[in-house]
Design goal:
By secondary structure, this protein is α/β, with parallel strands linked by helices. The chain has helices at 2-12, 21-32, 35-47, 52-68, 72-88, 92-105, 113-128, 132-149, 152-169, 172-185, 193-209, 213-228, 234-250, 254-277, 279-339, 341-396, 401-431, 444-454, 456-461, 482-498, 549-555, 561-571, 609-614, 625-637, 648-657, 674-684, 702-706, 720-733; strands at residues 440-443, 465-470, 477-480, 504-515, 518-527, 577-581, 585-596, 617-621, 641-645, 662-666, 690-694, 712-715.
């Protein structure tokens, strides 16, 4: 900035080379009216005068100038400086917004240090927001750019942040190795001496975690010495004094602990007095900044509102023209129809008869469609059980790191396909009224946390800030249908995340009322995404409806999710409520009452139950060879003996001649099916537990299967831990 002022002074004084006074003023105006000038003035106000309101004002002028003159690179630099100011003011959301704007303008093919600074800033913001994965991603991007540019000092600064991330994740040994490397690579006369000090402090905190107090004290003394010969940052000094006091106390050196505690208190008091002397000036600057910030936010809202109004006006014009054309065609059609009405009456009667026949055909076709979808989804479950089962067994066998990602992807794809099949089967079952609502014990908090965790990758892909708001002081052991409840949550959360890219999603559960036997809960899924127009809000709950063709093409999906949610809630005696406004997001809410339950999670005593299971024999009646292999392997992993029979007739004779502790019976068998075989077995054996294994279809339900004498039903593809829990329960009961 001083150089710019010097150039300006030379220009104004240049009358000896023929410039007129007006010409000098014009040249001076060119220099002062530029992005570089405004950025320099903004930086001077931030760094030297600590006047953030003026820093923002001049940086905004730099942005306006760059936009006006189509200076894309300068616009990116201006966004970067504004983001840095907001970061220092702890306005992380605004900082992230402007860092991302800067990145979008900087060249990625030929990166410079400015894009690395933006990546580094995003990493720091997300680290403060405790979004460790995103922070790590942006630090890696910054490091890649700095390595290309051969900026070794900057790379060490990023390595420090990587170490802090490793420490936050609990990888203490990796964090320690990186920190020691940072210390070794920074010279005592380097500009990054404060980075070296921070590395010593981080190492001391790692040693405190390990309860290695003498080593922690050594690192803190090195940090204190490094800070003394470096920039003498009082913030570092305060942290070091406080950590030294804690370390000496843990090491039972009370005298030294009190000494450093007094130094910490004395330094804190001194800083407090200094801050009080500058209170008036800082307060005035803070008020000015807040006013400026509100103005900026208001202008941004007005700009977005004007853009939406303009787009809406264009859409109205197009629709008006289309409507006029349609009305004109309709008038012409009515005129012609009036002339031929008499001659068409007889034709209409004939058509009515044809329509009646077509209606009957359509009803038969609808039933055939339902039967077809039910059969297809049912038949897909058997090979899908093999896919999910083999994936589970491979994951249990400690695969190589190179194989783990493939297996995790296979596990995710299998679960995704299963959910898709379930949606098709569920909508057919709901439409045919063949639905049974279970009342089993489950933990609602655990269910919600598991569902939220399953969306983690989808949340990161869409850059969503996800908020799970549940009162954890409440006992959420309830009786109900966790499967149906999961369908509701998954469909609502999937839509909220999909239609709110770069936004926020809130998943909230509140207790409306409670009595000794029941709990009345309020559920809400809210987002600030694209929203739903008023005229589409009723139709959005129809099957295969997504509001518009454009939404379907942009976001994809079957349009079954909200229809399933509405039908399930109606069966549960509740209803879904929607509040939405285009461009401002949507809120879906409902209420349900649950009976209080108990925690039925079965915990296996490895010293007792494993011995019990080793004595048990199970008969597996299953005709599919792959499913035979998978189920047998899963049983043998828990030390259970298993004999396999592939048809119902042989199973009946086997149980007459031999004793088994438990029978796993597939429902769909060649010849006599599983239900018929169970009925025959129950004529001479009413004691041995029989558990049905079925890819349950549209015409099946749990109550129907239990009516044949089966004790429990496990649906294929089955979840391994649920499978183990059920068989353990019945094997233990036969002891």
């Amino acid at each position: 900035m001083k150089n710019l002022f010097f150039i300006l002074f030379i220009l104004i004084s240049s009358t000896n080379i023929g410039f007129s006074q007006s010409a000098v003023y014009k040249e001076a105006a060119k220099i002062t009216d530029s992005s570089d000038y405004y950025l320099e003035v903004g930086l001077f106000n931030k760094e030297d005068k600590k006047s953030y309101s003026k820093a923002i004002l001049f940086t905004e002028k730099a942005i306006e100038y760059a936009k006006k003159n189509n200076l894309e690179e300068k616009l990116g630099d201006s966004y970067l400086q504004l983001a840095t100011i907001f970061f220092e003011l702890e306005k992380n959301d605004l900082a992230i917004d402007y860092y991302i704007r800067a990145v979008s303008l900087f060249s990625k093919k030929n990166p410079k240090s400015n894009i690395a600074l933006a990546y580094y800033g995003l990493g720091k913001c997300y680290l403060i927001k405790n979004n460790i994965d995103l922070a790590e991603t942006y630090f890696e991007k910054a490091a890649t750019v700095y390595e290309k540019l051969n900026f070794s000092d900057a790379i060490e600064l990023i390595n420090l942040q990587k170490a802090i991330i490793k420490k936050e994740k609990g990888y203490n040994d990796e964090a320690s190795a990186i920190l020691k490397s940072v210390i070794d690579n920074i010279n005592d006369d380097s500009a990054l001496i404060s980075t070296k000090t921070e590395a010593y402090i981080q190492l001391s905190e790692l040693e405190l975690i390990k309860n290695n107090y003498p080593q922690a004290i050594d690192y803190l003394n090195l940090a204190l010495l490094n800070n003394k010969y470096g920039n003498k940052d009082v913030k570092f000094t305060k942290r070091i004094y406080k950590l030294l006091s804690t370390s000496y106390e843990k090491n039972n050196n009370i005298l030294s602990s009190n000494l450093y505690l007094k130094r910490y208190v004395h330094l804190t008091d001194s800083l407090s007095k200094l801050n009080n002397n500058n209170l008036t000036e800082n307060t005035v600057d803070k008020i000015q900044f807040d006013k400026q910030l509100k103005t900026i936010e208001q202008l941004d809202k007005e700009r977005k509102s004007q853009q939406k109004t303009l787009q809406f006006s264009k859409l109205i014009s197009i629709l008006s023209i289309a409507l006029i054309s349609i009305l004109s065609l309709l008038s012409l059609s009515l005129y012609k129809n009036n002339k031929i009405r008499t001659s068409t009456n007889k034709l209409l009667k004939d058509k009515n008869k044809e329509l009646t026949l077509e209606k009957e055909k359509a009803e038969r076709a609808s039933k055939a469609r339902a039967d077809f979808l039910s059969t297809v989804s049912h038949e897909l479950r058997t090979p899908l059980n093999a896919i999910n089962g083999i994936t589970y067994l491979l994951l249990q066998e400690k695969p190589k790191v190179s194989q783990l990602n493939y297996l995790k992807s296979l596990e995710f794809s299998g679960n995704y396909l299963l959910n898709f099949i379930n949606d098709i089967l569920e909508i057919n079952r709901l439409e045919s009224d063949k639905v049974f609502i279970e009342k089993i014990n489950f933990n609602l908090l655990e269910l919600c946390e598991n569902i939220s965790a399953s969306f983690k990758e989808f949340i990161n892909e869409n850059n969503i800030n996800f908020h799970l708001n549940i009162d954890r002081s409440v006992n959420y052991n309830l009786k109900g249908d966790p499967t149906k409840l999961s369908q509701i949550f998954i469909n609502l959360l999937n839509n909220a995340i999909k239609f709110s890219k770069d936004g926020d999603v809130w998943f909230t559960i509140n207790v409306k009322s409670e009595n000794p036997n029941s709990l009345h809960l309020f559920f809400e899924v809210k987002d600030n995404g694209i929203g739903i127009a008023k005229d589409k809000q009723e139709a959005i709950f129809d099957s295969f409806s997504q509001g518009s063709v454009e939404i379907n093409r942009t976001y994809g999906g079957t349009g079954l999710g909200l229809s399933i949610v509405k039908k399930i809630l109606e069966i549960m005696g509740s209803q879904i409520h929607l509040q939405s406004e285009p461009g401002k997001g949507s809120t879906f809410s409902f209420e349900l009452e649950f009976e209080k339950g108990i925690n039925e999670n079965i915990t296996i005593d490895h010293n007792v139950n494993i011995e019990i299971l080793n004595k048990k024999n199970i008969l597996l009646v299953e005709d599919n060879k792959i499913n035979q292999m998978i189920t047998q392997k899963m049983l043998e992993k828990r030390g259970i003996s298993c004999k396999i029979i592939d048809n119902g007739e042989d199973a009946i004779h086997e149980i007459k001649d031999n004793n088994y502790d438990l029978i796993l019976m597939d429902v769909h068998l060649p010849g006599i099916n599983g239900t018929e075989a169970t009925s025959e077995i129950r004529k001479f054996n009413t004691q041995t537990p029989i558990i049905a294994l079925t890819a349950i279809s549209l015409n099946e339900n749990r109550e129907m299967l239990l009516s044949y004498g089966m004790n429990e039903v496990i649906t294929k593809p089955f979840e391994p831990e649920h499978f183990y829990n059920v068989i353990t329960k019945y094997l233990s009961s036969t002891e």
